[in-house]
Design a protein that fits this description.
There is one protein chain. The chain is an alpha/beta fold. It is built from 37 helices and 17 strands. The strands form five sheets. Strands 2-1-3-7-8-10 form a six-stranded mixed beta sheet, with helices on both faces. The protein has a four-stranded parallel beta sheet with strand order 13-14-12-15, with helices on both faces.
Length: about 900
């Protein structure tokens, strides 16, 4: 079933955060809760996150009473028509006489007078009514601990509280910990452990997931992260009627494939089928009979690891006549493996209406078109599972042990393969004892497939430390496959040694190898996730390696075969570099575009060049814009591999042609027949030539043309045109790294524009000067220009420009160590619409919004800086006075 993002315009959210308590309550303050609310509201209202409007996201603090909370939820229910999202952070209390009854602590709550707190049952009943009466999707998130009093009070069933919370049809309830656990707020952390992990997950995304993050995916990743900490938490998810499929966040790590790319993938060679299929004769016969009905859509679905891909690949081989003894079908056959989105299937069917489209998916894709034929795939029969293991490990005379292992693994082929690979070097009785005794240390998965996890545990625990290091590093790779040199770059190991480690991982069943390239099985990759920070660092080494190898291939002409095989990897790396905001992501993307152009993949090259231009423009990176435009210029005249008149041209040759053309055009423009040429018109023509020179990377020519245009406008006496020229000159100097000169030119332009009452133009000029001075390191002068830009943008009344000015000022103040003021400016920016292409220069706005503990301590010792508008808020209290949120 396709997961749909909840409509933000018809949804509502209520966030309740109680971080301060009355002195007589006896409950410790929770400073992290206040920051929880701000961070969660930010990702809910962020256009990239969900896009909820500020008015649709109600926030209630410690001052709220129980009536206020219920009234706010009731108003949200009446205003919503799609989804209701309710979040509570604070102390969780259990009733002393009814230990399965959860109460949410309010400002004056205490453990002796439970009537002062808010019974969770009130929220549960309100949400249940919202779903049943108004058909709302409802998600409830509770970041509070359930207290050790649950055990001390004689709670008969440890999960009773969760079941009580989730007793709501058609909704999901996500809790920070199990019924008997505490929720933690580690000292020094900005947010509580649970909400911090949730917010970070939403901000970074899940590479393997689809375009949205449903609560099932969020729960699996949260459980994975939090259960491995020093103070473990085990988040729980209670759902009814597929409530785990509710999604209120987009997946930032998802990269949508272009339609052309999808069509190419549909026709591309598919992964080879397994060497031998065990126990699937009946399934193949039934599928062949179904396929004989002709074109249409056939979905093979089942849980992960059940063997869908291998079965579909074998069917594809038979229907296309690639298996001896099997005739080719009288119609095209397209195979789509591991599909999660019904829309992808619909596009494939539309592109090939006369073909049989065979799809494998974990879901049955009930939203696919009518007439879809579906085939549910079950695990192997026990006898077939034993035969498979015996064949793979080469053992004879151990059928009893193999049968017990197969039962423990529920006869899932993927799990059987992993254990059989390990049995080649491990005695079966020892393996069986280890499986019986395994405490299943790997984290909980969304699909809750304990059998496959147990198999992976056995293989993973048998690895040595170097093999584990390579496996963890390779998880960071963004592409579909990689070679040993890329793996060596990720793991920082010599390629030869890394190659041996990769072969060990293949032998253990944890990687797949084909034509010298390695790939994860999609399921195993999800088991092997590392932190986002570790992955970003590993990928940095990968980007550097790929750039070096592309340069060697381009200059030496050798290693062409690697470049052809690595094109999918290169495109994936370019996308990841842009997501990671790597310093030279634009250059890497352009180099990938050049490689695609040289391989005559012109459509793909143009896609990469356009992506490079959009990225550079969003960052206001003049050098990157020029590089991307030059890349696009090389692609402009080429129409396809069949057009022999338009051959690929080298950059140097293109620049020579453009230089000669520009100089001829400049000479023609300077000629004044009869002395009647208009200096203003000549200036415009010279500025156009400067733009064309910059597109081709001819910076010196561009500067010369701009200087001549400057002289023409001075001669014409037109200050408006002169100001426009000065702005262009300032941009060129910034591009060339001459920041003081750029600031001086932008300052002159601002003065001329202000004299002509062009407030918005003057504001942009001051902002350009501020950026140049910030890059030059002159922060006081940069702050002055940023203040002038902010004042003028306020007068002009453009929300997008004002948003940019606030963020620019915040970054400058952050660099000046005025952290409180920077956060105040950033808060003002968040209240305005965000310009879609706004760049993140300098320290990220996330770092400003959530500075480290050391930065906060430093801020508390500051004497204060001159405010921009109003008074900056006082720094919040230090978080983490205790390493846990104790309830009881």
């Amino acid at each position: 079933m396709t997961v749909r993002l909840s409509a933000h315009t018809s949804s509502r959210a209520v966030l309740i955060g109680v971080h301060a308590y009355a002195e007589e309550a006896g409950l410790s303050p929770l400073p992290a809760v206040q920051r929880n609310i701000s961070a969660l509201r930010e990702v809910l209202c962020d256009e990239v996150g969900w896009g909820l409007s500020s008015a649709s996201c109600r926030v209630l603090g410690p001052e709220a009473t129980g009536s206020d909370v219920m009234r706010a939820i009731d108003e949200a229910v009446r205003a919503a028509s799609d989804t209701l999202f309710v979040y509570y952070a604070g102390h969780g209390l259990l009733h002393p006489d009814r230990p399965t009854e959860l109460h949410l602590a309010l400002h004056d709550s205490n453990e002796r007078q439970m009537w002062r707190s808010l019974p969770y049952a009130y929220i549960r009943d309100e949400v249940r009514a919202a779903h049943r009466q108004r058909r709302l999707k409802c998600a409830v998130v509770l970041d509070c601990c359930f207290s050790g009093a649950a055990v001390e009070g004689g709670m008969s069933h440890p999960e009773a509280l969760l079941k009580q919370a989730a007793d709501i049809d058609g909704v999901c309830v996500l809790t920070a910990s199990a019924a008997t656990e505490l929720a933690y707020a580690p000292p020094g952390d900005e947010l509580s452990a649970f909400t911090g992990a949730l917010v970070d997950l939403v901000r970074t995304g899940v590479p393997e997931a689809g375009p949205v993050l449903d609560f099932g995916t969020l729960h699996a990743r949260l459980h994975q992260r939090l259960s491995a900490r020093q103070h473990p938490q085990h988040p729980q998810l209670g759902t009814h009627n597929s409530g785990e499929r509710i999604a209120v966040f987009r997946n930032r790590a998802y990269v949508e494939r272009a339609p052309a790319e999808e069509h190419r993938n549909a026709a591309a060679p598919q992964p080879p089928p397994a060497e031998r299929l065990f126990g699937r004769d009946r399934e193949l016969r039934e599928l062949a009979e179904d396929a004989a009905k002709g074109p249409g859509l056939l979905v093979i679905h089942g849980p992960p690891g059940v063997g869908k891909s291998a079965l579909a690949a074998e069917l594809h081989q038979r229907l296309t006549g690639r298996r001896p003894g099997h005739a080719e079908a009288g119609f095209p056959v397209v195979l789509l493996d591991d599909v999660t989105d019904a829309a992808e299937v619909a596009r494939a069917v539309e592109a090939s209406p006369d073909a049989l489209v065979v799809v494998t998916s974990r879901a049955s894709l009930t939203e696919a078109r009518p007439g879809t034929r579906r085939y549910p795939l079950a695990p192997l029969a026990l006898q077939d599972a034993v035969e498979m293991m015996r064949h793979l490990c080469g053992l004879t005379g151990h059928d009893t042990e193999l049968a017990e292992m197969a039962r423990m693994l529920s006869c899932f082929p993927l799990a059987l393969y992993s254990v059989a690979a390990r049995l080649r070097r491990t005695p079966p009785d020892l393996m069986l004892d280890a499986m019986r005794e395994s405490d299943r240390p790997l984290e909980h998965l969304r699909w809750d497939d304990d059998r496959v996890r147990a198999a992976y545990t056995m293989s993973y625990e048998a690895l040595d430390e170097r093999q584990r290091h390579v496996l963890r590093a390779c998880v960071s790779h963004p592409g579909p496959d990689f070679d040993r040199h890329s793996a060596a770059a990720l793991s920082r190991m010599p390629p030869g040694i890394c190659g041996l480690m990769l072969e060990e991982l293949v032998d253990a069943g944890l990687l797949q190898r084909s034509d010298g390239r390695y790939a994860f099985h999609a399921l195993y990759r999800s088991y092997s996730q590392t932190s986002a920070e570790e992955q970003t660092l590993c990928r940095t080494w990968l980007y550097l390696h790929l750039r070096r190898r592309l340069k060697v291939t381009r200059e030496g002409g050798a290693d062409r075969g690697w470049r052809v095989a690595a094109l999918p990897e290169l495109r994936a790396a370019a996308r990841a570099a842009r997501r990671d905001r790597w310093t030279v992501a634009t250059e890497l993307t352009c180099e990938v575009a050049d490689a695609l152009r040289e391989e005559r993949c012109l459509d793909e090259a143009r896609e990469e060049a356009e992506a490079a231009y959009r990225y550079a423009a969003g960052r206001a990176d003049g050098r990157g814009i020029a590089r991307a435009r030059g890349c696009l210029a090389l692609l402009g005249g080429e129409h396809g591999p069949g057009d022999q008149r338009q051959r690929a041209r080298e950059v140097a040759a293109v620049q020579q042609e453009v230089t000669a053309e520009l100089r001829r055009a400049a000479a023609s423009a300077r000629q004044r027949p009869g002395g009647t040429a208009d200096p203003a018109d000549l200036g415009h023509r010279l500025m156009d030539l400067a733009e064309r020179a910059l597109v081709s990377g001819l910076v010196d020519d561009a500067m010369r043309f701009q200087a001549e245009a400057h002289a023409c406008f001075e001669e014409a006496g037109d200050d408006k045109l002169l100001a426009e020229c000065l702005v262009g000159q300032a941009a060129l100097h910034t591009f060339a790294g001459r920041f003081p000169a750029a600031a001086s030119l932008a300052d002159q332009a601002a003065g001329l524009l202000a004299a002509h009452s062009d407030e918005e133009g003057a504001a942009h000029a001051h902002a350009s000067a501020a950026e140049a001075l910030r890059k030059a390191g002159d922060l006081p002068a940069a702050a002055q220009h940023a203040h002038r830009a902010l004042t003028r943008f306020q007068t002009a009344g453009d929300p997008a420009s004002l948003n940019y000015a606030y963020r620019l000022a915040a970054k400058i103040e952050w660099a000046r160590q005025n952290h409180a003021l920077a956060r105040d400016l950033l808060d003002k920016a968040r209240e305005l619409p965000r310009y879609p292409g706004a760049a993140e220069e300098g320290p990220s706005t996330r770092a400003i919004a959530h500075p480290s503990r050391a930065a906060r301590a430093e801020r508390q010792g500051e004497s204060g800086a001159a405010p921009w508008t109003g008074t900056a808020p006082a720094p919040g209290p230090e978080s983490g006075q205790s390493d846990r949120c104790r309830t009881g």
